[in-house]
């Protein structure tokens, strides 16, 4: 496979460390709470979006599929609701004591630490990278056993 990086026209010039735009782009399910609320935002909104993508990849589900699109800014921005972690937590429990169970548990913690309501409490991009790298190392160790 080949990875391609693209720009959907959402990039903004950076001035200082905080960003704010009158019109923000993005897909509702992946927009961080502070952006929905019209507040200043920084790189932590990307960590939030990545957490939603990771949740999708691990659960094979679409976030807020049962909610009308116009409700998402309210439930994410002000209501602090996130996609359900139940299936991921149950999978981790079912595979407890295995490498796969440990990786699922690590991913659960990673996601929960990356999509919090307070951007200051989210993991940094480097912390996300290190945790994902650790998960990959763990999975690589069992792939060699098969």
Automatic annotation (TrEMBL):
InterPro entries: Kinase-like_dom_sf, Prot_kinase_dom, Ser/Thr_Kinases-Pseudokinases. It comes from the Eukaryota. The lineage of its organism: Eukaryota, Cryptophyceae, Cryptomonadales, Cryptomonadaceae, Cryptomonas. This is Protein kinase domain-containing protein. Pfam families: Pkinase. GO terms for molecular function: ATP binding; protein serine/threonine kinase activity. Residues 1-136 form the Protein kinase domain. It comes from Cryptomonas curvata.
